Amino acid sequence: MSDITEIVDSLENRVSRLLHKMEILKQANLKLTEELADSAKVIREKESVITGWEEKYNALKLANAMLGSNESKTETKLKINTLIREIDSCIAQLSE
Asked: What does pTM read for this prediction?
């Protein structure tokens, strides 16, 4: 009978240790989930900043092209033609 008691006690100890380990792992999982969410937020913010800088760069590039830099005369002409077409389209819509 004492063997059965020892086995039951041993099983209880093992179950108790497993439950404790499971609780520790749950807490670690929760912490990692929070860190992942924080990291995703930081990444989104950085991507937003990068997008902003890319837009500023493109605007600056366009401004330099409009000023007539020798590097992008063709690009400047194409952009001006596009702008003229857009203006013509707006005028046509307004006159309808």
From this structure: 0.53
